[in-house]
Amino acid sequence: METSLYPQARQANILVRSPLKLNHIEARIVALALGCIHSKSLELPQIRIPMKRVIPKAKSGPVYEQIDAACKTLMGKVVSIARTNSRGKMNIKNYGIISFMEIDEGTGYVTGNFAPEIKPFLLELASEYTTVEIETILTLKSAHAHRLYWLLTSWDDVGSWEVEIDKLREQMVGTEDTAYVIFYDFKRYVLEPAVKELHDIGWMVGWEPLKVGRKVTKILFTIPKHVIAGNNGEPPILDITPKGRQKQSEQLTLGIIAEMPSLHQRIVARLQKLLVTDSQIKTVLEHLGDDEASFTKLLKSTHQLLVNYETKSKVFDNIGATTVNSLKTEFPGLFSKL
After folding, report:
1. How many other CB atoms are there within 10 angstroms of residue 225's CB atom?
2. Is residue 239 part of a domain?
């Protein structure tokens, strides 16, 4: 069976901009699955992707297990489309993306079906949609870069995009991930690496944080125009049969790399060990805002206190209260809040 894999992929903007958490393999499968759709299709086609396109140089064993795990996860992915009706009431509809997937080691293909309910966001798109080049997006090495590529491309006709930081975080890592609630962590582990990948492929997007007081509340992106190749008549079909040695850019490392604990996680863990209450921890985090120097100061100032407490070299009647009093001394603005 011949496979039609077209050079471009499309989605309605409302789908592109909905919160969605994917890992790298899942993001590649989604991009390739969208590449199975002809721009003039009236019905959703079968998804049929060579496994060597999902993970270059695929071999039996763990690679199949990685792809299988990604397919199972994708079948459970849900995107929430929120709209406001004429009466100003919010309407939220939840859509599955993919309803069925199969991995055939014999043929070396991943096959599947899109969920039928997602059809309006993938077919007959006359306006408000985003087009990306498959080969370009597949050079990106992280899921965060995939998400940012889609998001920024959906705004490149405007040239800039101002977005609330909480909304951007949800769009890039989903609503269930709480690892990057401090801007410092989001910037370090998500935003800056993703932007660097875009720069590496020659798309020189820019960004700057916008603050209210000491807290970053929005990001302003400047977005150079993306040039999409024309496709008069029938879109050409990509040659997806591996030939000879792959390009170096395709030889991706897809292993999961364990991240260092985020600054937010370290602060919460430190204060929890010192028996500070959850409400007090929340107050401390809100007061510190996005000041990296203050985060470092807190960890440094409470280090010896934690050592004394855990080694029992000093007896504390109430370590939580002692910690709070120490924080009030180190951060005078906390005195009236804690």
Report:
1. 9
2. no
